[in-house]
Design brief:
Blueprint: H1 11-34, H2 41-68, H3 76-102, H4 112-129, H5 140-164, H6 171-205
C-alpha cells in the first residue's frame, strides 16, 4: 500500500457496496422471473424497474460525491468506471426482464436458466468483493472467478444461439429470444468489466 499523508473520502466504499447489494436484488428478481408464470412476470418487472431506479440513484450519488470531493480513495477515472459498470449490470438485467414481458414470451429456451445462474453467482461475488476495496485485500480470487464465470457465460450463450437457430422456432420468435439472451450475455460482460476495474484499482494501489 502506498503511504498517504492526506485523508481520503471513505463514503465511496459504502456507496459501492450498496450498489453491489442492489445488483444482488436484481439477480434474485431474474431468478424469480425464470420460474414465474407469464401472468406474474409483469409484477416482477415492476419490482425490477424499481431496483434499476435505485441503482441509478446510487450511481448518481457516487458521481455527486466524486464531483464534490477534493480527495478520493483512488483515481477519479476508476471511480467513474466502477460506478458506471455497476450501473450497466442493473440496466442489462432490467432490460432482459422487460423484454420477456414486452415480447410476451411464454417459455424461455433451455439454457437461459444457466445464464441467470451465472449472473446470480457473479452478483454474489461482486457484493462480497466491494467492501474489500477499503483494504484492497482478498480481491484476487474475486476477479479470477468472475472472469471464469464470464467465459462460462460465453459458452452458454453460444449454445443458446445454436439452439435458437436449429429450426425449432419461427423467425420472429428467434429474433425475440435472441435479443433476450444477448442482453443477458451483456450483463455477464458488465460483471467482467467491474472485475477488471477492481483489478486495475488494486494494481495501482499496491
Amino acid at each position: 500500500m502506498r503511504f498517504r499523508l492526506t485523508p481520503r473520502e471513505t463514503s465511496f466504499y459504502d456507496m459501492f457496496a450498496a450498489s453491489a447489494d442492489n445488483i444482488v436484488t436484481g439477480s434474485k428478481l431474474l431468478m424469480e422471473m425464470l420460474g414465474a408464470d407469464p401472468a406474474a412476470r409483469a409484477e416482477i418487472s415492476e419490482r425490477m424497474r424499481a431496483a434499476e431506479h435505485a441503482g441509478d440513484d446510487a450511481t448518481h450519488a457516487i458521481f455527486h460525491q466524486l464531483n464534490s470531493s477534493f480527495i478520493t480513495p483512488f483515481d477519479r477515472e476508476d471511480i467513474y468506471r466502477l460506478a458506471s459498470s455497476l450501473d450497466d449490470i442493473m440496466d442489462f438485467m432490467e432490460e432482459a426482464v422487460d423484454l420477456v414481458v414486452l415480447y410476451q414470451v411464454d417459455e424461455l429456451p433451455r439454457g437461459v436458466d444457466q445464464q441467470i445462474e451465472v449472473l446470480a453467482r457473479a452478483a454474489e461475488l461482486t457484493a462480497e468483493a466491494m467492501p474489500n476495496l477499503r483494504t484492497m485485500t482478498n480481491l484476487t480470487e474475486y476477479w479470477i472467478e468472475v472472469n471464469r464465470l464470464e467465459n462460462q457465460a460465453d459458452q452458454i450463450h453460444r449454445k443458446l444461439l445454436a439452439h435458437l437457430f436449429n429450426g425449432k422456432y419461427d423467425a420472429i420468435e428467434v429474433l425475440k429470444l435472441k435479443q433476450i439472451v444477448d442482453v443477458l450475455e451483456e450483463a455477464a460482460d458488465a460483471f467482467e468489466h467491474v472485475a477488471n476495474t477492481v483489478e486495475t484499482i488494486a494494481v495501482k494501489e499496491s
